[in-house]
User: Which sequence fits this backbone?
């Protein structure tokens, strides 16, 4: 890609870049599907600031000419002012120039950044507060390998053969027993094994939602739920999260006026805030759902990671009306790479999810399901969970201590009794994305708050996961962040004492 | 459920049953979600033929009051003449009686029978010609277990942790190398690992199709494709399959008149017919697709199961236009229970499939992907494939021999050079579903032809898979079928020499 910039021109450099790229695409010198140079490389080649190239690419992005994907690059996805023409019927020799419809008709590729940073995860010198994931170094590899070996020896032939779409039956039985101990009564036929909670959410989306339907989500919430429920064909109703979880007055108001088809909620150690709904709120949520006949999708993925305080019954255990659909998985307490989760719901709904799952991918990985069943039946999951909980509690405490020491700057944060992360609110003039940009240069990573919002993102929030860093790393990382926040506050300080904006409703 | 039949009534017994069940549902004595007695049990209790109950249930099914699922039972899904009422807004105390929308608003559960018969598979005394699946007894369990152990020892921590949505990278590299040897040139970024071909098909469906879009499928074809592409929101164009595969004249005619968004085709050892497209047909298919700008989805799942003749290049290897999307998996040559498949397509499309896959289930099972990569890299997959091919060739030959011996009755069948099954055409007056009903009583199972048709099913066709039965079982089973066909022909023989219908276009 040859670009020539005129530094004497009145046209800003970024506009020159955008205009020339546009021209190259129009002339066919760059084609749909071609990759543009990384902005850093192009900036170096042209001798301009990287932000100049970023701005130019943003223009082209806004034009719909290019799309980019974190970790992969920026691609030309459309040509300017070249009408796509009659796509299917024209059969003359020039038709081969007509683009295939994925070349032009697909929507702009959405940035899916919430699984990124895997490269950083491999670097030893980084402090990763990014992911709500189990600590890899605590995986009991030998014990798990023996479980895999046992099930392969015992029933390898059936595990490697095509199986039932509902999944490995002994694991279903185990899960039903475990849930019964926690007060969730369900029978065979009311459970479906899924590839993690994400697949359960996607199956529920496809089963319960039609285009145009409304969905209640907590705001902020799990990005994987945002990626499903905040697609353009649905309308989301974002309900704020307070110190007692989902704001039930706001929810009731929404239910009175609108007709959502489901309510997605993480009542225990909510992601990202760490907040847990108290018992009275749980009861009221169920009454509201029953009254307005809206199913609750309860995601209990962090439930068993409790380091203090008393366990509360899940919504499903409290549900006398049959309105709660329960999701869980082994991805937080066990091994996310295995993709084993489950959904518990009334039989009729499970049948529909089951039929849909069969169309989607036939069934899940039976070896992983059987190995998890064996691992759990031998008490190894419980042992692993206890060991992880001890470590995570220490790490959480190290994070609390470091925050108290290094964040004496008007920040506030949650101090959850379990889960994997702390939710931080910085002074309003600090932008967490700006903070991340600077922190990454010092090897500290976290997830900026805006990534968890469906709308109305609060730019001064962030999530710090405490499970994947050691206490020493946590101290170092939080210290680095604290200093950077002070620097940003100084840099962004108003010239005169400004009137502080009316305080927003405290999220936590 | 208490029913009383009046055997003196002019009302047929099945109508009496249907009417009384309708009444019980209306009165609330049977509720939505309740399970009806199995038809065999009800028939016994009432002292009627099972077919009487089946007919009654069919009536209720046609009314939309009940739905059934093989292996699970028949359920009440709606009540007659009870308007669902205002679902979400009414907030008075009677609202709790309003059904949740999955209780009434979901479409009738479709019969998904193509994975059924798993119970029969466990019985030793049965002959199973039902499934196009690898022979379980040939699985090299020890070798595969050592692969699993090796990868867990070497990289267990990263395999059990959350990974990239595109899948285990070394397996992608291996597959790209293997495909390059077969003339398919593709680079990193043009491949995505999926949970079998089924997930690849579903991701393609969601990416390439909008409601109302048209799809070209072979007719008959793989039932998993039917379950996706013959949903009510799409229109399918079923193109017949002849001795050289997809009827290209019919295809061209369809392309000239209509605007399908994709063409799904199994060019090598087509399921269910076993037919392979010759080279000239492959070239012409690609030219047509390029000319009309319709992508081809090429499913090459049976490709490597060849027991004679020369291998032909895949469509993807012949494609100079970038119109072919290539699917394959380890489910036929390896282990279907692991759910490891892949799709190769232009980079931009892969990016979209990748993003969608992340929303669907984050990623596939990394342990299975890594174990397959290790198993293949050590030459064990090739060795396993050779061993299976020897056995499958013997089994296929045993089936050909048995068919020649026991089907001297005007039947015809395909004799494919590979794959897993033979497609059989019986004399027109024999119905393969009727044949199956009788064969099952003698412990012989197969898949009736109509299950593979999108429409215009030919009732006298059936598929006999030869991979999951031994040569001795094959002889026994085919002999049983041959006798039953003769019996059915005698029973269904016309009283006088009827004018035979004009022969349909021979499918094969």
Assistant:
């Amino acid at each position: 890609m040859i670009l020539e910039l005129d530094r004497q021109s009145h046209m800003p450099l970024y506009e020159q870049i955008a205009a020339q790229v546009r021209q190259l695409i129009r002339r066919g010198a760059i084609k749909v599907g071609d990759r543009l140079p990384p902005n850093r490389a192009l900036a170096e080649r042209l001798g301009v600031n990287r932000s100049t190239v970023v701005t130019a690419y943003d223009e082209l992005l806004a034009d719909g000419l290019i799309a980019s994907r974190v970790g992969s690059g920026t691609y030309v996805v459309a040509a300017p002012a070249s009408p796509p023409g009659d796509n299917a019927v024209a059969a003359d020799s020039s038709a081969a120039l007509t683009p295939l419809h994925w070349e032009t008709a697909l929507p702009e590729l959405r940035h899916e950044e919430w699984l990124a940073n895997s490269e950083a995860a491999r670097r030893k010198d980084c402090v990763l507060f990014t992911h709500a994931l189990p600590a890899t170094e605590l995986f009991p590899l030998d014990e798990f390998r023996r479980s895999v070996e046992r099930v392969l020896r015992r029933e390898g032939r059936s595990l490697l053969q095509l199986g039932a779409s509902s999944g490995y039956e002994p694991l279903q039985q185990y899960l039903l027993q475990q849930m019964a101990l926690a007060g969730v009564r369900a029978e065979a036929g009311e459970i479906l094994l899924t590839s993690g909670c994400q697949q359960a959410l996607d199956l529920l989306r496809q089963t319960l939602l039609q285009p145009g339907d409304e969905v209640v989500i907590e705001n902020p919430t799990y990005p994987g739920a945002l990626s499903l429920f905040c697609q353009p064909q649905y309308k989301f109703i974002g309900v704020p999260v307070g110190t007692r979880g989902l704001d039930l007055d706001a929810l009731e108001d929404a239910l009175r006026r609108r007709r959502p088809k489901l309510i997605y909620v993480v009542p225990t150690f909510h992601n990202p805030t760490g907040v847990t709904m108290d018992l009275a709120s749980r009861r009221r949520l169920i009454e509201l759902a029953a009254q307005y006949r809206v199913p609750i999708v309860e995601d209990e993925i962090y439930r068993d990671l409790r380091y203090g305080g008393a366990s509360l019954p899940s919504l499903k255990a409290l549900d006398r009306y049959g309105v709660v659909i329960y999701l869980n998985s082994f991805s937080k307490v066990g091994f996310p790479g295995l993709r084993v989760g489950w959904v518990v719901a009334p039989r009729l709904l499970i049948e529909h999810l089951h039929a849909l799952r069969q169309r989607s991918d036939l069934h899940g990985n039976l070896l992983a399901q059987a190995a998890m069943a064996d691992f759990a039946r031998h008490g190894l999951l419980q042992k692993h969970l206890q060991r992880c909980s001890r470590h995570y509690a220490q790490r959480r405490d190290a994070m609390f201590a470091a925050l108290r020491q290094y964040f004496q700057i008007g920040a506030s944060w949650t101090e959850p009794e379990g889960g994997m992360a702390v939710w931080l609110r910085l002074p309003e003039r600090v932008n967490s994305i700006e903070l991340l940009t600077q922190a990454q240069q010092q090897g500290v990573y976290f997830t900026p708050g805006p990534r968890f919002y469906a709308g109305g993102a609060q730019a001064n929030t962030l999530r710090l996961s405490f499970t994947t860093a050691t206490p020493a790393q946590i101290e170092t990382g939080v210290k680095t962040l604290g200093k950077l926040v002070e620097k940003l506050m100084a840099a962004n300080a108003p010239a005169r004492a400004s009137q502080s904006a009316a305080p927003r409703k405290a999220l936590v």
The first strand of chain A starts at residue 35 and ends at 36. The two ends of chain A are 50 Å apart (CA to CA). The longest helix of chain A spans residues 380-406. Chain A has a mean pLDDT of 88.
